[in-house]
């Protein structure tokens, strides 16, 4: 009878009939039967049968009351229905195309099942049903939309009249999934979060533009805020009662760690939504506010001490900056959903949303053209980098675990974010921004690796390669280098600051940076028990940065900012560190790269230095110091150095001398005189053979006396002692000549002193030759050695002016060769010397040179007491050469002028 009343055409009568049936059913189900009602299958079926009969009534108000009654039954006694479940499911399944108004109730019922706490599997199944419901909405969207729009159905109290019924249906689904995302059970939160963001990504294109405003401010941002609060207040201790005997991984054994997983999933999902639906969201009037709020959540999460959350925040930052992958890949990453569930977008989706859900997004970078948006993103990047890399005040005691040090993965992700962000901000990138970037980069590279993680990050010695963090740093710096080098004047003005940053990174290869007060062991020095912290190996990294500097300087050496900021001087000062250490560098490749870089740098820098002499005055002193530190290093070669490597290294030393000979001394007029003096002194010092090891002189060490280097230095001195007075190099002749004369005087005095100390015992034949060989780099003093010495290589082609003073050196050299038994002094050599004497007049010789030559005379006189007939014969010829030098000239001219 009551079911007939429910079909009455008068709505009031129908309402009373439905109320009577639903009230009776609920009252009977709540009655305490004995035995209980769920044990009497027939009685339970009889009670629910009238409620099921209402499914045959088409009026929507009756079906609404029926479903409301079903929901109340499920809440009050759903756990005792048992045999009544088929009838309840039959009621829900009786909905058909004429009852689309009840779809929201279906969603709410499924969500309520998800929120129940009695059975976890029921909740997970309910979330799966919500995904199936969303898929049904999508597959039958045309029929559902038409039916909803044909009715006068309106959204519930939480809806908005501005939204279409179909969009309100989706919002109902999103809201309920959002509630499940903050459930107290981790498994429910994870499943709900995956379902929510998968649903938004797969079917969000069906929503109207104004609906997205509601999605942002009523679903997504409330979700982030709730997760943030619950995560911050979660317990950090393990709850044994909650876990029971279940074995839980240490990364999820506390409520805090479980909420961290939820926080990661939620932030990543919102970031993906922003990225995939960026065109629609940008058209919202309050998009800048939403963008800033999302950046705020990213910054807060990135600075979270939980490593999982902080790293995920940076990945979300990368997501909204549109790095890397297609939207299709992003939808399924970390969601564990099959590809078959994601349907391709329809023409309707593309028309309504302006984009397809699986369209790649890399080509859409310029869409966010508002520089203020990217300026806000840059500030967030700087804040994260600055605050996350602040060194702890006190070093961490092993096992305390309270000091936060960012992981290498976190720092790598941070620096990988810079290049795409810079592409959006380089139009307003200022010098202060570069300083901020440099500080973040330096601090990030300074962070050591924890000893427990070092085997997984630092490659085993000696297979040393750059780490992911160092590779990300190189990418970031390369991005800046390309932008500055090829950019407008505002960017090119940053050349000096950019060079300073790169030079600092190069020094890390020799002196690894420190991180606050943390005591870290250097890479390769770990022995015995594992240490707390290990410093990264910077050798391959610094070498790559070094060649980045070479390329940049060679392309910008003529730029006024580079010249004015003394960049070349700074580069040379930096290179002094590895070149001075030489064999004491952490890696033998370091100084080899440095010296090769020096050659490349000077090939571009020296012409500029000569052209702008006033800007490079300080550079020459640094260069002279570099030559001295490298050629006469205080760090000898190791005993294990092979002869092949020694010869290679000596060849590099000779190459330095060739550089001085070919690219510096020929342009002495544009070089400071102090520098020329220092270089000549270096050549003079190098012309004396010297061992590269302080060990006892044995057969092997004798082979390492740098004979070729000494010969090269001596030949260079000779070359610039015989230059023409009219040439540009004439102004260095006096310096070279004085250096040689001083050396000659020392040789003669040393011989006389040795002769005196010998007493009545005569010195061995050729002792004076030994001292002179000390001057020109010979390493053994036998006839065979003398036969190998090419006298012609030492004879000048033309000797004029101040080079007259060198005649004594040559005559002494030739005579001493004869004293050793080699009668090879050619007539041509003597004739040449005589010709020079005739051409050299007192007026062509500078006073200081005259004085140095005359000072030789007493030393030669001391040799007259020598008992050696060979020496006395050589002395006689040498003294004959002094007949024109016994008196200084009456007037003094500089190079004949």
TrEMBL record:
Transmembrane segments: none annotated. Residues 103-765, 838-889 form the Mon2 C-terminal domain. It comes from the Eukaryota. Pfam families: Mon2_C (PF16206). Signal peptide: none annotated. InterPro entries: ARM-like (IPR011989), ARM-type_fold (IPR016024), Mon2_C (IPR032817). This is Mon2 C-terminal domain-containing protein. Gene3D superfamilies: Leucine-rich Repeat Variant.
């Amino acid at each position: 009878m009551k079911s007939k009343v429910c079909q009455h055409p008068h709505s009031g009568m129908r309402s009373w009939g439905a109320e009577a049936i639903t009230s009776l059913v609920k009252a009977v189900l709540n009655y305490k039967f004995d035995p209980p009602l769920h044990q009497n299958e027939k009685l339970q079926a009889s009670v629910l049968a009238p409620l099921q009969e209402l499914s045959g009534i088409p009026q929507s108000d009756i079906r609404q009351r029926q479903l409301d009654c079903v929901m109340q039954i499920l809440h009050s006694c759903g756990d005792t229905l048992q045999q009544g479940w088929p009838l309840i499911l039959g009621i829900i399944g009786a909905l058909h195309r004429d009852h689309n108004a009840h779809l929201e109730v279906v969603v709410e019922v499924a969500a309520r099942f998800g929120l129940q706490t009695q059975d976890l599997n029921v909740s997970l199944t309910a979330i799966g049903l919500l995904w199936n419901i969303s898929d049904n909405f999508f597959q039958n969207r045309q029929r559902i939309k038409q039916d909803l729009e044909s009715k006068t159905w309106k959204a519930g109290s939480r809806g908005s009249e501005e939204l279409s019924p179909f969009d309100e249906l989706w919002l109902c689904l999103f809201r309920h999934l959002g509630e499940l995302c903050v459930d107290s059970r981790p498994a429910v939160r994870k499943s709900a979060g995956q379902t929510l963001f998968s649903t938004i990504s797969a079917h969000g294109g069906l929503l109207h533009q104004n609906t997205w405003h509601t999605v942002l401010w009523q679903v997504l941002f409330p979700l982030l805020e709730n997760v943030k609060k619950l995560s911050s207040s979660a317990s950090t201790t393990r709850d044994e009662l909650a876990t029971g005997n279940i074995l839980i991984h240490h990364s999820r054994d506390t409520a805090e760690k479980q909420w961290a997983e939820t926080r990661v999933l939620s932030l990543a999902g919102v970031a993906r939504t922003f990225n995939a639906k960026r065109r629609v969201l940008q058209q919202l009037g309050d998009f800048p506010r939403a963008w800033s709020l999302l950046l705020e959540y990213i910054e807060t999460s990135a600075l979270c001490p939980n490593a999982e959350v902080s790293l995920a925040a940076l990945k979300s930052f990368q997501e909204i900056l549109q790095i890397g992958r297609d939207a299709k890949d992003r939808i399924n990453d970390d969601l564990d959903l099959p590809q078959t569930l994601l349907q391709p977008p329809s023409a309707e989706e593309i028309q309504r949303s302006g984009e397809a859900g699986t369209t790649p997004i890399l080509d859409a970078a310029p869409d966010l053209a508002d520089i203020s948006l990217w300026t806000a993103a840059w500030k967030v990047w700087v804040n994260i980098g600055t605050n996350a890399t602040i060194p702890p005040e006190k070093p961490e005691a092993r096992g305390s675990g309270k000091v936060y040090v960012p992981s290498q993965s976190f720092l790598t992700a941070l620096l990988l974010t810079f290049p795409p962000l810079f592409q959006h901000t380089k139009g307003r990138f200022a010098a202060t921004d570069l300083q901020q970037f440099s500080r973040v980069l330096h601090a990030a590279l300074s962070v050591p690796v924890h000893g427990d993680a070092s085997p997984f990050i630092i490659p085993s010695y000696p297979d040393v390669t750059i780490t992911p963090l160092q590779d990300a740093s190189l990418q970031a710096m390369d991005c800046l280098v390309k932008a500055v080098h090829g950019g407008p004047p505002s960017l090119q003005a940053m050349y000096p600051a950019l060079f300073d940053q790169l030079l600092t990174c190069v020094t890390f290869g020799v002196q690894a940076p420190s991180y606050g007060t943390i005591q870290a062991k250097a890479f390769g020095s770990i022995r015995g028990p594992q240490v707390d912290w290990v410093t990264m190996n910077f050798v391959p990294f610094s070498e790559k940065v070094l060649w980045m500097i070479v390329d940049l300087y060679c392309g910008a050496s003529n730029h006024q900012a580079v010249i004015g900021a003394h960049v070349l001087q700074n580069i040379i000062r930096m290179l002094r560190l590895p070149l001075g250490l030489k064999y004491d560098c952490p890696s033998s490749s370091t100084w080899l790269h440095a010296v090769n870089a020096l050659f490349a740098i000077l090939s571009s820098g020296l012409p500029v230095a000569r052209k702008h002499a006033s800007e490079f005055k300080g550079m020459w002193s640094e260069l002279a110091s570099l030559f001295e530190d490298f050629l006469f290093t205080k760090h000898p070669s190791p005993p294990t150095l092979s002869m092949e490597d020694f010869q290679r290294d000596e060849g590099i030393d000779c190459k330095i001398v060739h550089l001085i000979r070919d690219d510096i001394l020929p342009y002495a007029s544009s070089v400071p005189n102090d520098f020329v003096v220092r270089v000549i002194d270096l050549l003079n010092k190098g012309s004396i053979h010297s061992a590269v090891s302080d060990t006892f002189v044995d057969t092997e060490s004798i082979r390492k006396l740098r004979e070729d280097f000494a010969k090269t230095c001596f030949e260079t001195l000779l070359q610039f002692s015989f230059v023409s007075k009219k040439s540009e190099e004439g102004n260095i002749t006096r310096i070279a000549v004085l250096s040689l004369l001083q050396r000659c005087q020392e040789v003669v005095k040393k011989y006389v002193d040795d002769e005196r100390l010998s007493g009545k015992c005569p010195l061995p034949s050729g002792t004076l030759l030994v001292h002179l060989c000390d001057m020109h780099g010979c390493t053994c003093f036998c006839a065979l050695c003398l036969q190998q010495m090419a006298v012609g290589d030492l004879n000048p082609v033309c000797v004029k002016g101040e080079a007259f003073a060198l005649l004594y050196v040559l005559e002494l050299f030739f005579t001493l060769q004869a004293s050793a038994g080699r009668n090879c002094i050619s007539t041509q050599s003597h004739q040449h010397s005589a010709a020079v004497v005739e051409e050299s007049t007192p007026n062509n010789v500078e006073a200081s040179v005259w004085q140095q030559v005359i000072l030789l005379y007493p030393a030669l006189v001391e040799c007259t007491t020598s008992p050696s007939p060979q020496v006395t014969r050589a002395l006689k010829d040498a003294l004959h050469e002094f007949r024109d030098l016994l008196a200084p000239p009456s007037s003094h001219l500089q190079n004949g002028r």
